[in-house]
Predict the 3D structure of the following.
Amino acid sequence: DAGVTQSPTHLIKTRGQHVTLRCSPISGHKSVSWYQQVLGQGPQFIFQYYEKEERGRGNFPDRFSARQFPNYSSELNVNALLLGDSALYLCASSFAHEQYFGPGTRLTVT
Amino acid sequence: AQSVTQLGSHVSVSEGALVLLRCNYSSSVPPYLFWYVQYPNQGLQLLLKYTTGATLVKGINGFEAEFKKSETSFHLTKPSAHMSDAAEYFCAANINQGGSEKLVFGKGTKLTVNP
């Protein structure tokens, strides 16, 4: 079975631009979460979606938004990019309290 | 607020030596606990988890962890380190809040294995 997939793998953007990251969960998983991992730190929770509804939101500004589609895939959008948004963005799908992570999208903001 | 603390950002051991990575959690209710491993430029791979029941949990690649409620700890061990164990390790707690479920991670411990 395919695991969690994310696209793109790497992305370079300029300050002020907008970015969209995509995630496909494991087949049958209805919950998707997003995490930001800054270099040298543990991942920080951004959002959780379940059945297309936002279930939880971490301490991130409104520039960060997400949505989940009927097929349970998800997008993370970040507007007005700042240098500090440079990070590895991880998507996880979950089942029975266990989260399965994708390989991540490495975002570099210059 | 719930938190996870990993003692030691870097741990260095010799090949064949015992690996001990420390994790403490802060929560009034013992959460589900996890250890993940991350190799360079990769995502997180689950090593093992504690939910309920047996407090000694065995995971992949010879790792195990013991949940100690009295010490609010969940330390990760492996009897004999292998070169392939060199990676970053994250301890995490599953926090359920108002219908949402999220992982709270420690800052990570980078394990170096010397030949």
